[in-house]
Amino acid sequence: MRNRLMYCLILSRRGLNMCTFQNDALNFITNGRVTVRGLSKLGLIPKGQCVIPNQFYEGGWGRWLPMPNITLLPYFSVSVASGFNWAETVAFMEKKVKPNTFIDLGDNGADKRNHEDDEVQPLYERETEIEQKLQANGLLYPKSIVDVIDLYVALGLAFKTEDQQGKWSLDMIIRPLRKIDEVLIN
Q1: Cβ neighbours of residue 10 under 8 Å, at least 6 residues apart?
Q2: 41 partner at 20 to 30 Å CA-CA among 8, 34, 35, 104?
Q3: Would you tell me how many other CB atoms lie within 10 Å of the CB of residue 27?
């Protein structure tokens, strides 16, 4: 511990910051774009672990991303880090769906009437507001795993890539992550 402290002190006196050096090296390797698949290929994500962007909540993603997308994001990250193709990602995430993952915001309002005095009502109000925001931007509220993944892609949180065998896979942006208000403008 003492040697490490001395090393850091020497580096700081020389004007070197290891975090800056590491960030500069990573930016050089990735052309400034850090993704889950890229970090995984560099061996920086342990097997079975997920990586969520640091700026996820700061960038407003927690405010405007539907609850199914938020709850399934760690599983999506694991599937990307594991190198799954499109079909494997969908199958993996379908296994992670719980009975209450997808919220029915149907026009009949049955769910809303059943939960008016319940603690669940604020969730329905939040999700209804998000559904309206998505619709104003030409996007659909997710009702399935494919919808969840499509929304990640449409919002720019993820993107599709084609491997050398012609199979589609997905990747997730870690940095730079745009603010969601730059994506959902209406």
Answers
A1: none
A2: 8
A3: 13
